[in-house]
């Protein structure tokens, strides 16, 4: 038997993760003595030497008198947040003098340790293969621990023991870093209400057309009005979120992907490039500590788009001799703004007509001319025919699609939410830390924006997955349990490889799922 703790502060659970008061890492080593005793000893010594701040639990030689050994094992594992399951070449062997494998015995200590580790939602379970062993298949394991076969294993060889234990140590240190990050989440944070809009706008007017988030958040004018919050851990993140939320009003394009630690790359648009309000005043120490009054800046009016009428578009195609017939499909595309597939088809048709018109112009110009200067010959005739075809195509498109698409009741809101989901999915791909700090995909958290109903599979609790993801409670609980073992899911395909969902349920979840 293995795994007893030697006192110390009781660990706490925060958001489903295990933490001690000082983010101390606790590691449980499970092994079978008849299988890999020497490797377990070597791993224990190596980890204690390389991770002096961690507590490694191993070698329980006795259980207190009268104690329930199942409860005792589960209690010891409950205090850890990493379980290393050592698997050697004799891990599945039968007990001497018996045909029954030890792992099949309900009271086998190793089986109980694995069961308890897999059942603990906060625990990261890592199979460790030693002695050249291979990972057992699900069919070789009892049903209660078959999930162990699906976990990514870490291999350790006696020939490269020092190198392998160094790699394992590095991975365990990364887990410790994640726990420290969780501990920091209880620190004071900045909110949108703390952002001074006037300072942001003034600093932007002094920055080049392309700048990074920290170029703005560290600008003297911005720091001067954020003295009380500039030292908070999420200060730069909130500034970035503020730019994202108000980018249209601030005259900014979609942010570019970060290229270094200074945050997303922002580009000014021409519509507000001349904006330069006066700099904000820095409150003196003698004045009140109340924040300075904020200045509101009205949005510039957006000119209404004036669409051409059908008769105008027909004349346009005819009078330009077909050279501008490519404009007709683009005009038709704007008649159906809610049909993305139709808009793409019209854009392709516009490109085809544009190429055809260019080819016709070249053919007509390359043919010989008669005495009056009129192009003649086969090439000229082909070019003229092609121009007639482009005119006919342009006119036909106008006549067929002259009536604009009428939005049905509720259609606009549904399509708007769909577009919103796509935009925030793009944000997740471009800047995952920013999306995480904005709580994208967390409808259970109070937010000041609408992401279209996205659900973050990697952080949403069971009730949110069930309510917003179209899952029943058991399916949602299974997903939460598995992500505690795997760390996070990276795609819907990986999720479906671990969780068997009905096709209809998978389709509903795919529409709203995001993996932050």
From TrEMBL:
Entry keyword set: Membrane, Transmembrane, Transmembrane helix
A family per Pfam: TIR_2
Domain of life: Bacteria
Amino acid composition bias (Pro residues), ranges on this chain: 290-303
The keyword Lipid biosynthesis is annotated on this UniProt entry: no
InterPro entries: RuvA_2-like, TIR_dom, Toll_tir_struct_dom_sf
Keyword Ribosomal protein: no
Biased composition (Basic and acidic residues): 254-263
TIR domain mapped to chain residues: 27-168
Protein's UniProt name: TIR domain-containing protein
TM stretches of this protein: 313-334, 346-364, 384-401
